[in-house]
Amino acid sequence: MQENNENPVKEPVLEDIPSKEEKKISGVKFWLVLLTVVFTVSMASGLYLALTPSAAPKEKEAEASVADDVAEASSLLKKLSKEEGAAVVKVRGVIQESGESGFMSRQNSASSIAKKIRDLADKKEVKALLLDINSPGGTVASVQDIYNAILFFKSKKKPVVALFRDVAASGGFYIAMAADRIVAQPGTMTGSIGVIMQANNVEGLFDKLGIKVMPVKSGKHKDIGSAYRPMTEEEVALLQEMINETYQQFFQAVQKGRPNVNAEMLPIYADGRVFTGARAKEIGLIDALGGEETAREHLAELTGVKDIKLITPRPNNFMEMLYMGGASMESRLGLASKIEDFTTPKVSYLWAY
User: Fold this and answer.
1) Strand partners, 190
2) Contact between residue 124 and residue 88 where contact means Cβ atoms under 8 Å apart
3) Which residue from 182, 178, 132, 184 is spatially nearest to 158, judged by alpha carbons?
4) Residues 191, 269: contact at Cβ < 8 Å?
5) Residues involved in catalysis
6) What's the rounded Cα separation, in Å, for the pair 132 and 164?
7) What are residue 162's DSSP bridge partners?
8) Which alpha helices (DSSP H) does 196-291 contain, by range?
9) Residue 120 contacts residue 313 (beta carbons within 8 Å)
10) Which of 179, 220, 328, 337 could form a disulfide with 99 if both were Cys (CB 3.0 to 4.6 A apart)?
11) What is the spatial distance between Cα 98 and Cα 94, in angstroms, rounded to a whole number?
């Protein structure tokens, strides 16, 4: 019998066949290596460009092209913002300075709103201002910054109408005292004329955790309002004096802005209580009941422009478009600022509901 000299076919061993998991791990390793290489090359290129005294002609052309694109976008935005009418500025949430330090956060701070109002005052196409408010108030200085910006806007002989949404209380009500007219819905919550200072005390919690805070201070009142110890009667009296002073500033703004309110009843109304829009209309704290269309009618009356348009100010340049929406992300991540808010007392025109 003739022997078969052909090599027998070797059966594949199960262990030689890579499993799905091994393939997946191998793929992940490949992409990690690739990303590492790309990152390294990018870093090296960045360092080279940073250390090179002058860019090559082609690189300069590319930079010039980007600059031209930005300039073109800015020019387009300016052209789009030339529409005439009443500018709408929205005030939303607690009125205060942003606690974040990032460049994306400056659009939401009180000083940014105040600056926007002042900038609008100098624009010829802006004939009036609609101040759209949905806020329970805010810190004293921030509220006063916006209030003064509105007065500056009015100094340019341009009228201001405030429109209250769900809530326009305390500091949200304060800034409207600079307006020529105020419009609110019957169910709007408003008023809350007053000042509050909320000082937290975590001494008991720290005792349980075995934490001791030992301040070294230049004077006995340097840590007044500290969250780590109770206040003395003397300190409470000092803070009450400050609260009374800031309250008088608020009260005087209401007297000036709402001259038709009964002078004898105003101190009673200004004890921190809140009103519905309907009740506020009865006692003279607002001028009319309604929404945006009612506010527009008052703007038309004050400007003499029958069909006045409501225009939302656009970003002044291309970079400002990138700032939009950045503050909300930073505020969610700003744990340090939240701790600071909790441990640092603030004097506020705020309806602390």
Assistant:
1) 168, 275
2) no
3) 178
4) yes
5) 170, 222
6) 6
7) 131, 182
8) 203-209, 233-257, 266-269, 277-283
9) yes
10) 337
11) 10
Question: In sequence order, what DSSP letters do the residues of 151-198 get, joined into one string?
Answer: HHHHHTT--EEEEEEEEEETHHHHGGGGSSEEEE-TT-EEE--S-EE-
Token pair for 195: 């000042």
Token digits of residue 194: 């007053």
SS3 348: strand
Q: How far apart are CA 153 and CA 178, in angstroms?
A: 10
Q: Quote the DSSP letter at residue 344.
A: S
Residue 146: partners with Cβ closer than 8 Å, 6 or more residues away: 91, 95, 110, 113, 114, 117, 175
- Sorted by sequence, the CB contacts under 8 Å of residue 191 that are 6+ apart come out as 169, 173, 269, 273, 274, 275, 280, 285
Which residue is listed with tokens 């700003």? 334
Query: Which residue type is seen at 46?
Result: G
- Cα–Cα distance, 200 to 339 (Å, whole number): 11
Per-residue pLDDT of the chain (353 residues; tens, 9 = 90+): 455 555 555 555 545 555 555 555 566 566 666 667 666 666 666 655 555 554 444 445 544 554 555 455 455 445 445 678 999 999 999 999 875 544 444 456 999 999 999 999 999 999 999 999 999 999 999 999 999 999 999 999 999 999 999 999 999 999 999 999 999 999 999 999 999 998 888 888 888 889 988 899 999 999 998 888 999 999 999 999 999 999 999 999 999 999 999 999 999 999 999 999 999 999 999 999 999 999 999 999 999 999 999 998 766 544 444 444 444 444 444 444 444 455 566 788 888 75
Nearest to 348 by CA among 182, 177, 135, 187: 135
The four Cα atoms 117, 119, 122, 128 give a dihedral, to 10 degrees, of -30
Q: Pairing state of beta strands 181-184 and 274-276?
A: unpaired
Helix, strand or coil, per DSSP, at residue 95:
strand
